[in-house]
Write a sequence for this structure.
């Protein structure tokens, strides 16, 4: 899982403490002190979450959250502020923040709140698994499965035609026709091997058998990683 955070706060002591502390919990944190620069990074880079102070000098952290959400940002956002009144907390949450932490804060509580929001975001927007050709594996943030060369080729073929049924004949011709032996039943055998290896892992797809059509990969298809 990507564990890269964006911190937006105009207090260098706070940002420095957050960067150091979050590193101890396995996060790579980068900091910005201006709303416009932070918004540009949210548009162009990938983060697992953001921690945004309500007061950013002349800028408003609440306005930054509202703008980021209006542009489609879905990452977890925690607001950080010395302002503890209900009105400010409500404004931050209504702008699109997922949680609100009041300064001074307990660092362990901050990390716990951040992880709760990350888990919720993963459930809403699961990351696709990755097919890694060099290692012949399929991997996600939670699982990794090693495949034989033929199993990998079969899964790759299904991924390239995700949501499209492939007949036994089409699969056999693509993967076995040059062998000069065997018959289409070998496709069923290797589909069985794949299903057995993938069973019990948290991949967001399945290989379905469609009557009179063949096999089809449905759900959140894995990504074919660049070699």
């Amino acid at each position: 899982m990507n564990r890269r955070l964006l911190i937006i706060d105009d207090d260098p002591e706070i940002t420095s403490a957050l960067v150091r502390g979050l590193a101890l919990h396995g996060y790579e944190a980068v900091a910005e002190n201006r709303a416009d620069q932070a918004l540009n990074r949210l548009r162009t880079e990938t983060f697992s979450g953001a921690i945004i102070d309500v007061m950013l000098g002349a800028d408003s952290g609440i306005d930054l959250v509202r703008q980021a959400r209006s542009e489609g940002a879905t990452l977890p956002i925690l607001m950080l502020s010395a302002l503890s009144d209900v009105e400010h907390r409500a404004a931050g949450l209504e702008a699109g923040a997922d949680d609100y932490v009041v300064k001074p804060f307990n660092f362990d509580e901050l990390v716990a709140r951040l992880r709760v929001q990350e888990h919720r975001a993963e459930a809403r927007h699961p990351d696709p698994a990755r097919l890694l050709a060099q290692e012949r594996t399929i991997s996600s943030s939670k699982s990794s499965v090693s495949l034989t060369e033929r199993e990998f080729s079969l899964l790759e073929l299904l991924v390239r035609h995700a949501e499209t049924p492939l007949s036994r004949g089409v699969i056999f011709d693509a993967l076995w026709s040059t062998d000069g032996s065997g018959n289409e039943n070998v496709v069923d055998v290797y589909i069985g091997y794949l299903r057995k290896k993938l069973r019990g892992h948290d991949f967001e797809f399945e290989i379905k058998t469609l009557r009179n059509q063949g096999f089809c990969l449905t759900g959140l298809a894995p990504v074919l990683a660049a070699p």
Notes: The chain has two domains: 4-124, 130-224. Residues 107-124 form the longest helix (18 residues). The chain has a mean pLDDT of 88. The domain at 4-124 is CATH 3.40.50.2300 (Rossmann fold).
